[in-house]
Design goal:
The chain has an eight-stranded parallel beta sheet. A seven-stranded mixed beta sheet has the order 1-9-6-7-5-3-4, covered by helices on one side. It is globular, with a radius of gyration of 25 Å. It starts with 11 loop residues before the first strand and ends in a 5-residue tail after the last strand. By secondary structure, it is α/β, with parallel strands linked by helices. It contains 18 helices and 24 strands. The chain has two domains: 143 residues, Chitobiase/beta-hexosaminidase domain 2-like (Chitobiase, domain 2, 2-Layer Sandwich), CATH 3.30.379.10; 391 residues, TIM Barrel (Alpha-Beta Barrel), CATH 3.20.20.80. α8 crosses α11.
Length: 563
Amino acid sequence: MADASVLPRPLSVAVGHASVGPSGVSGADLGDGLVIAHTPALLPEARWFRQMLEAGTGWVVNLSSTDVPDKAAVVLRLGSLGQLPGDLESFMAGTKSTEAYRLSVSGGRVVITSSSGAGAFYGLQTLRQLLPDSVFRQAARFGAIHLSDIEIVDAPRFVWRGVHLDVGRHFMPKSFVLRLIDLIALHKCNVLHLHLTEDQGWRVPIERYPLLTEIGAWRAESSVGREEAGLFDGVPHGGFYSCEDLEEIVAFAGERHVNVLPEIDMPGHMEAAIAAYPELGNIDEPLQVRTSWGVSDHVLNLEERTIRFCTDVIDEVSAIFPWEYFHVGGDECSTAEWRTSSSAQQIMREQGFTDESQLQGWFTAQMAAHLATRGRTLVGWAEILEGGGPQGSVAMSWRGEEDAVKAAGAGHRVVMAAQDWLYFDRPYSLDLAEPLGSPGATSVERVYMYEPVPTAIPADQRHLVLGAQCQLWTEHVATPAQAEYLYFPRLSAFAEVVWTSDTATHPKSYDEFEPRLVRHLDRLTALGVNYRPLEGPSPGQARIWRPLGAGTGAGPRRGRSRA
C-alpha cells in the first residue's frame, strides 16, 4: 500500500510515478528480516526506526552500515536531494533547510536522502505514515507490507516549530512529557518549551537552593472553576523532576530531534521561590506557595543577592539543558512592590530611571549578559521589549501582532505564540460540554488557518520570524488525559501551519486538510491518544470535565487564596 495522506502535508507527493529500479520491481515489500542500510552518521535514526518497527510489527529488523542491494529494503543516505522539478528546485534553494528529505519507493526498496540526521528522521516519520495504522500500536503482528511507488520531496517552512507545556500550575509526570515528545516528533515539531516555574509551583531542583523544591514545589490546594468564584479543592498538589529525570527528557528528545527549551520565569511569577526564600521578596511577611491563579503582585526584589540567585539558577539549569536558547519569562511582572521598595528606588536613582517598568529591562539585560557568558541566547515573552529588549534576544509574541512588528523592527528574532490562535488552554468551542478553560474558543479550523508572519512586518524583516509555538497553560488542566484532549487534534493542525508552505500549486485549504486529518486520527487512535473528536467531546470526556460538584449536592469549598 502507499497512502499519501501524510500530515503535515509534504511539499511534493507523486504517487505511482517513481521510476522502476534496475530489478524491474515496482514498489517495495517490507517484512520480517528487513535490513535498514544507513551511513554511519545516521545510525541513531536507523536505531530509532528499528525500535518503532519491531514494536509495531513483531518483525526482526537488522541494521547495516553498508548498502547491500539484494537485502536492504530501507536505505538512509546523506547527500544532495538530486534533481528536482523546476518549481521545487527554486523553492528548496530558497529555504536552505537542513531538515529537507527525499523519500522514494521503487525497485523493491525505500530510499530516504537528506543532508542531516533531522531530515532522515522526518523522512522516516513520513514512512511510518505510509504504513498501516496498526504499526503505531505496540503489539501488532504483520507479514509483509507492500508499498506502491511513491516519491516525496519535503522541507519545513519554519525552523522553530514549538509546543509549550506549563508544568508549574499543574505538575505533569515524566512519563507524559516523554509521550508528548514522541507525539510532537511524529508531527515534525522540533521544540518542547517546558514552563518549569510559577507562582504555584517550582519543578526543577537547584542544588544551591534546596528549599525551592522542598517548599516551593508544593501547594496546600488549588483553585477550581473560575477565579472569581473563590472555590478551592482542599487537595495538596505538587511535584518536581529530578536532575536525572530532566537529563533523560533532554536525551529522549534529542534522539527525536526535539530541542527542549527551559523556562525559569523571572522577575515576576516567582511567588513559589519567595515562599521558599523570603529574602528574595519585597515584603517582610512570609508567603505561601500561591493556591489561586491569576497574576501575583509578589515579585523578586532587585538586590544584588537576588540577582546572584537568578544567575545561580541559570547556571544549574543550563547545565541540564544544552540548547542554545534559555527562556526567562518576563511576562506580567507587577511593579507595585518596587514603587515602595527602598532598594528598587535606589536603583532607579542610580540608573536615572523615571518609571518602575524600566527596572525590568535593567534586570533582563543582566540575565541576557549572564546567559551570553554561558553561550546561551535569552528568550522572553513580549514584555521584555518594554524595557528595550536585550540585543540579540528572541521575543515570543503572545498578545498580538503588534509586539512582533515592534520586535522585528528593532532587529529581534520572533516566535509567534498568538493567544487568539495558539493558546490551547482555550476550549474548542463555547459548548458547555467542553472542559473549563481560558475565555474564548479556538477551533481546529481556526488553528489551521493561522498565518504566523504578520503582513505588517516589512518583507526585508520577515526572515526574523523564526516560526510559531502553541501553548498549553494548565490552570484548568490537572491530568495528562486533559492535556492530550486540548492538544489534539489542534496540534495536528498547528504542525501543518509551521511545516507546510502555502504555495501557488498547493494553496492552504481546510477542505483539503480535514480529510487527511480524519485519516490521521486513526493513527492517534492506534497510539491511544485521548484526542477530541472533530464533532465534539465524547460523552465520557464531557462527563469527566464537568465542573467539580456539578449535578450533585457536593462541591468544592469556598475560600480565598492565602497568598
